[in-house]
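Private note to self, pasted from the team thread so I don't lose it. Backbone tokens:
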């Protein structure tokens, strides 16, 4: 029997930008991300891993 299991790892990074509002800051960072001025890699792994199949899921927390 073949069963597909989805594994999701979460990468995250805090980016500081000068802006006059939260909305502007989000727009600036979104543009920087789309233009690949911000690139997340293995060092941005935040330890969150989700393993799931259909409705069942297990959340694992890594100590890295």
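Design output:
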């Amino acid at each position: 029997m073949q069963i597909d299991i989805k594994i999701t790892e979460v990468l995250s990074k805090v980016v500081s930008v000068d802006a006059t509002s939260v909305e502007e800051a989000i727009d600036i960072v979104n543009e920087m991300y789309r233009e690949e001025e911000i690139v997340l890699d293995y060092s941005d792994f935040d330890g969150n891993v989700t393993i799931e199949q259909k409705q069942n899921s297990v959340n694992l927390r890594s100590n890295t």
